[in-house]
Here is the input.
Amino acid sequence: MSTNITPPQETNPLTFDNHNAIASTATMTSPTQTSTTQPTPSIKKIAPLSFILNAQFTIKKSDAPVFLAATKLVYDACLLEPECLFYHVGRLDAIQPTWLTELPEEESEECVITFSEGWNCTLEWYKEVQFRKEYYGPHMKVAGAMWTKPRKCRLFFSG
Here is the structure.
């Protein structure tokens, strides 16, 4: 599956230079979905970084459009959280634009989707407050059923 990215217009009020980057927007379309505007993950605010969560999800390539649609709901909601400093969805095996734009061309029927999230909170708060928010439930129900291998998570703490 291939998608087309339309870069944000120069007048976009959310686009800043590299030193003051805040979530900019891009329009993403695919043959099976209508055009949507999505923030591209970048540093959205200047704040102390407490930890980075990196998660890997192995799924069938054919499940990717539904997996990414379910992920988009969590992605958008997390970027609105004051504690979320950045949220990046990508593919483990490629260097690419910030939002997944196409699936790998290799012979494998699986692909690995990665999330990198930067948070300004304690891990305890993240587990007890953030991860219990209502928008994670539908995501876990839909996307979790698509995992072909157990998810892998790594935490990196600052300081």
About this structure: The mean pLDDT is 73. DSSP finds three helices and seven strands in the chain. The beta strands are 4-6, 24-30, 33-40, 51-60, 84-91, 110-119, 152-157.
